[in-house]
Amino acid sequence: MASVNNFCHLCEEEDVSNVAVVLCADCETFLCKDCERHHSRNRASKGHQTITMDEYKKLPSFIADIKSRCEKHDEKYDFCCKFHGEPCCVKCIKDIHKDCRDLDPLVEVLKDIKNSAKVSNLDKEFNILLENFETVVKYLNLRTATLQENKTVCLKEIRNLRASINKHLDEIEKNIVDDLSVEYNKIKLKYDHLTSEMENKKKSIQNWQNDFSKMTLYATDLQIYVGLQYLEKLASEEVGYLLNFQRKGQPEEIRSGTKLSPDLKTFVNKIKTFGTAVIQSSPLSLELKTSDECQANISFPQFLTIDQITPTLKKRLTIPEQNITPKIFGCQILPNDNILILDKANKKLVLFSRDGENGETVFIFEDDPNDLCYIKGNLIAVSFHALFQIFLIDLSTKMITKTIEVDDSCFGIESNGKILIVKLLGGTKSVFTLDLDGNVLSTFKVPGSRTIRIALCKDRIVCTDWKDDLVSCYTNDGVLLWTHKHENICEPWGITVDKHGFIYVACKGNGRIIVLSEDGKKSRTILSTDNGIAEPVAINIDESSSTLLVTNCFNGVAFVFKI
Fold first, then answer.
1. How do strand 371-376 and strand 451-457 relate by DSSP bridges?
2. 1 pLDDT exceeds 60?
3. Minimum mean pLDDT among 78-92, 153-167, 252-266, 339-353: which range?
4. Phi, psi (5° rounding) for residue 290?
5. What positions does the domain B box-type occupy (predicted)?
6. What is the DSSP secondary structure assignment for residue 88, as one 8-state letter?
7. Minimum mean pLDDT among 117-126, 327-336, 412-421, 456-465: which range?
8. Confidence band (pLDDT; 50, 70, 90) for 348?
9. Three-state SS for 263?
10. CB of 522 within 8 A of CB of 495?
11. Angle ∠(497,501,507) on CA atoms, nearest 5
12. Cα–Cα distance for residue pair 75/257, rounded to 1 Å
């Protein structure tokens, strides 16, 4: 509709460039001042609605791009379909709106529309919405300020606690330092006295040594004889003194840490943290306005916690009797609520209708199947560990549409509708990502000799290891994020993930269904043998309806629960 330079369309046809001053919305034509004057006087166009260029330039782009004629049929709009909420021409009525009942003349619909209740109601609704969002922004700003205040209070409490601990430790440190000083002074006084006494005796010995030397050099024999007796007596006394000193033992001493409080050592070893930052949610105290004409129902989502997950039994399914005891190794809830059961022992794929009646065998395999998954439309995938193959099967035709060869025994299989995730065992022990043509997109190693079942958890992959009783989570490129082990997890096999990210695990060893939090930090039992669960291997959940399918491996029984 818009002319790039906003020149008069009629003048341009004459190769004249005159600046347009108005737009005729009915003709979708820009007009200069002279052409607009003739246009307004012409009998055919005098009733057309025109707008000035200043007004046109102020229009939003999505409004300026609205045509006044039907783009499909190049006809004038004459009617308005209330059901579709759009204008239509006569040909549109025949092609598109032939079954529509609420068709009104466009003239009547547009009559005085600027002053209509619809315009005023929408204007009012926008004002209310704006006011509501301003209220929410103010509320969030207030909560942010409160959050900062709470943080400040918590920091003050931590620092006060630290200060009180420091003060207490300073006090008990001062006490022990004072005691240490007193004892040190007592013992040092004894040491000083002994040292002085020993120094005096040392000087006496030195003097006696000097006298002994002079005696041996200058004294007569008689003098030496008598002198020896005298000096020997003195030496004997000092020897006796030393022996007595030695028998008494060393004087008291202070040894570092010999009598520090064991409670203090325990305190240092056991206290690892000042506390824990506790996050508490408070009810949303926010009142928003609504109008009578258009109710703006604004609500904040309620987040499900692992402790709130409570399965409710909807129905019980039983596979028709077979000649061989069944082994249910795979199961799948389809988008139409039908249910697929994979019986490995009888090499069958059984389909139950949404009401759970009349299990019908839809496919019989030549070899033992291991697992299945839904891809999209009528397409499913079934893995065969002995064949090193994956079959893509069309349920509508009951035909194998493609056979994908893999490098090793394939067990668990999963899909998001675009790719396949396959767990290979044997010597490979890897997770392969394939496109639907079987081309390998990526691969990574997974430790564990019995990691055989996998599931997609948003942008991650979770898997079970029934030998080591582990549930593990990896990134798409094989980085281990976490592992979870718990006494209630015994021989975990089947694994599936709901729309909230909760992970459901079938434990064959103890007949339990365990749910894990998305981060793998918490788990709890939600179903057990008390609910009829017996050696479950296959499990599946429908994200859209939160319907959980649990199968018993050997008795042909399956349960459908509402989460």
1. unpaired
2. no
3. 252-266
4. -135, 155
5. 10-53
6. E
7. 117-126
8. very high
9. helix
10. no
11. 40
12. 102
Residue carrying structure tokens 């060393």: 250
103: DSSP letter: E
Tokens of 395: 């349920």
Report the SS3 class of residue 305.
Answer: coil
Helices 117-218 & 221-248 angle (0-180, nearest 10): 160
CATH architecture of the domain with range 306-562:
6 Propeller (2.120)
Cα–chain-centroid distance for residue 166? 40
Q: Is the dihedral of CA 161, 163, 167, 172 positive or negative?
A: positive
Q: Where are the alpha helices (DSSP H) in 59-100?
A: 61-64, 90-95
- All residues at 6 or more sequence positions from 311 whose CB lies less than 8 Å from its CB, including other chains: 513, 526, 527, 531, 548, 561, 562, 563
- For residue 22, the 8-state DSSP code is E
Task: State the Cα–Cα distance between residues 506 and 476, nearest whole angstrom.
Answer: 23
User: What is the identity of the amino acid at 100?
Assistant: C
Per-residue confidence (pLDDT) for residue 492, from 0 to 100 = 94
Burial of residue 84, with CB atoms counted within 10 A of its CB: 0-12 exposed, 13-18 middle, 19 or more buried: middle
278 vs 160, which has greater pLDDT? 160
The greatest distance separating any two alpha carbons of the chain, rounded to the nearest whole angstrom, comes to 171
Phi, psi of 177 (to 5 degrees): -70, -40
More confident residue, 288 or 502: 502
**Percent of the chain scoring above 70 in pLDDT:** 89
Q: Which amino acid is at 215?
A: M
Is it the case that residue 282 has pLDDT exceeding 70? no
**Rounded Cα–Cα distance for residues 184 and 221 (Å):** 53
Nearest CA-CA partner of 32 in 42, 16, 19: 19
H-helix or E-strand containing 443?
A: strand 440-445
Q: Which residue has the tokens 């030998």?
A: 467
CA 450 to chain centre: 27
Average pLDDT in the 449-468 region? 88
The Cα 249–Cα 238 span in angstroms is 17
